[in-house]
Amino acid sequence: MKKIKYLLFILVITFSSCEENDVPNPDESAISTDFGYQNQFDKFLAREFVEPYNIEVLYKLPDIESNYNYTLVPAEYEKSIKLANLIKYLCLDAYSAVAPAGFLEKTFPKMLVFVGSFGYNSNGTILLGTAEGGLKVSLYGVNDLDETSPEQLNNYYFNTIHHEFGHVLHQNIPFSTDFTQIVGAGYIGDEWSTAWGAGESLRGRFY
Asked: Which of 56, 140, 149, 207 has its CA 20 to 30 Å from the CA of residue 112?
């Protein structure tokens, strides 16, 4: 008898909770996009990168997006803010000023990953950036960013992002195979690093 009463109680609760307003609305997504607190930087990224260009900036270094071949650290919060602002004003805004409408939305990588440290190679070079799959660019050495040094900004960050953007363009827009014949078999992938000043520490850069 007690079991019957218990089952009736459960059925009453179940049916009473299934009111009409609990029925899913086919015109609304059932997937929540509310992932909790957003700081001011997150809101800035949503407003200046995601909304106009559909570009996601990952500055907290999710492990799935990092390079396991290197020992890396996440980007510092303040340095990430500075780099994001520099990319907006000196990269995205610059392209928008001269490129046709829709150029960035169509061609610019959809994911920028900020990495705090450089990737150090065994041959004395450092990894500054990588481009993957025509969609993602990783920028390294964010924690060393010095906004007061134009030379450092150009050498470490802006040369890198424009270089990697070039890779993304090549991965998405076919170009003549004749270009591969310019140096032909004479090109050796990493030979430049041995000629960049004998014995110079951390010479050059490796993309």
From this structure: 149
